[in-house]
Write a structure and sequence with these properties.
107 residues, six-stranded mixed sheet
Length: 107
Amino acid sequence: MLVTELMRTTIACPTQWEGRLEDGRSLYVRYRHRTLRVGVGDQAKDAVRNSGPESALLCVETPGEGDDDMMSFEGLRRALRGVLEFPEGLVVEQHPDWGKAGAAEDG
């Protein structure tokens, strides 16, 4: 399955990504406590619901990168090799709301 869009929505506790597959379905990926879960669905809410252990496309424990709740995109790419395909030119966006709360407090 080819990933055509990917946005990192949180950086840690858990690390999460949301995206879209080539066939138009939504993708949700969550990494927490060294467990990587991948859900796919027609809409984003379906992908989240389908990320539970009983319905996930993938639910595995991974060695992580020194933190049980944080994973980089490169770590994600390695962990999902053979499950999802990430094109070389894929740009992983950062969620637009990141940093807004801190910026408002610094004001």
